[in-house]
Write a structure and sequence with these properties.
Length: about 375
């Protein structure tokens, strides 16, 4: 998930372009557009066709627009069709569509239909969608992809209508939302992305998208991200916590002082996730000096309080990062407290990571406690994997 990320871009667009959106026979309402008022006004308002190295030149005698398009592509491969379609005047799109629809069903026809409506929607979303809703699923996918490029917030608003959302299959709506957020992220418009995210109810999908947004927002505008976290803390604790995790990772990169500035002014929900993420990163990178510096910088941190922090953060880190959690718990100064936390954390890992649980057991300094806990780990481990 690096930046708003290319991973999501590839995944989400891939789903939209290849998986197949499913729309019910009842067409959702179209967006307002000059195209619905007349061809003349639509042509006047539409962006000009792109003119670059891929611009169509001349047609051979008797050659149709589509034939010229395929001839001047990369050996006629449909994967390059979008570049050429973006160089075609908008007024020619209906003629090209009629040619595509006359083709026999094939992967080439499918891609061309999607690419045509994508290029069309970048210039006139209403006309493209009106055509796409008559042409089928592949055309609709392309039109939404093009509209998202041209006006992602408008595309989101149209898709987010109840009558439109009901037409998507599970998973495809998530992919569309992610594509919109990624587009806004690449345009450095996290504020709009956040406002759109706020329209979604609390869910696992929203939590994932909050993390996607926070990962880049934490780098570009951490202050705005913190404001978003504060607004959403009571509305959606899961999304807030997940987003705060990415904030913590970025603050950890900057150092203990940056982490201290945030956790000293935020609620426990935000501060604990930020601290946990920061500590996890420092442990993985071997930067325990940063955690020590953070503890020294916090007012009134006694050895006992430092032990509590190591215990809470270490046990919380263990499920996702057993090695990192163990390293943190070993920093607890009080032997009895350290052994207790090692034992309890080992117990929590028995069912999911028994070999890691045994690492915690072997770190217990008290012989009796170590042997007792070892038996409790071995028994379920042996039953599960002799």
């Amino acid at each position: 998930m690096k930046t708003f990320t290319f991973v999501w871009t590839t995944l989400a667009l891939g789903i939209l372009v290849m998986a197949g959106l499913w729309f019910r026979p009842v067409a959702p309402p179209l967006p307002a557009s000059p195209a619905r008022k007349g061809k003349a006004s639509a042509a006047a308002s539409a962006p000009a066709a792109r003119t670059n190295a891929t611009t169509l030149t001349t047609r051979l005698p008797g050659e149709t627009l589509l034939q010229a398009l395929l001839r001047q592509g990369r050996a006629g491969l449909p994967g390059s069709a979008l570049d050429y379609l973006q160089a075609v005047p908008t007024a020619d799109f209906p003629d090209i569509l009629r040619e595509i629809e006359q083709m026999e069903p094939s992967p080439q026809r499918t891609i061309l239909l999607s690419d045509l409506h994508e290029a069309w929607a970048e210039r006139d979303s209403a006309a493209a969608l009106e055509s796409a809703l008559k042409s089928g699923n592949e055309a609709i996918k392309g039109a939404l992809a093009g509209w998202t490029k041209a006006a992602p917030a408008d595309a989101w608003a149209w898709v987010d209508r109840p009558e439109t959302k009901a037409s998507f299959r599970i998973g495809e709506l998530d992919a569309f939302y992610r594509t919109v957020l990624d587009t806004l992220g690449r345009r450095n418009d996290e504020s709009t992305a956040a406002s759109l995210l706020d329209t979604l109810p609390a869910s696992a999908m929203r939590m994932t998208m909050a993390g996607q947004l926070a990962e880049t927002w934490a780098v570009k505008a951490p202050g705005e991200l913190i404001q978003w976290l504060q607004r959403n803390e009571t509305k959606d604790k899961d999304a807030t916590g997940f987003a705060a995790h990415f904030l913590g990772l970025e603050l950890a990169r900057k150092g203990a002082e940056a982490v201290q500035d945030v956790i000293g002014t935020q609620s426990d929900v935000i501060a604990n996730r930020v601290l946990g993420a920061a500590v996890s990163r420092w442990v993985k990178e071997g930067r325990n000096d940063q955690l020590d510096a953070l503890l020294r910088s916090l007012p009134g941190v006694t050895v006992q309080r430092a032990d509590i922090i190591y215990a809470q953060v270490g046990s919380g880190t263990a499920p996702k990062d057993p090695s990192g959690g163990l390293a943190l718990l070993l920093n607890i100064q009080d032997p009895a407290a350290r052994n207790r936390w090692l034992s309890n954390t080992a117990a929590s890992l028995v069912q999911t990571a028994p070999s890691n649980a045994m690492d915690y057991v072997l770190a217990i300094s008290d012989t009796t406690t170590r042997e007792t806990r070892a038996k409790r780990v071995y028994s379920p481990w042996a039953a599960k994997d002799p």
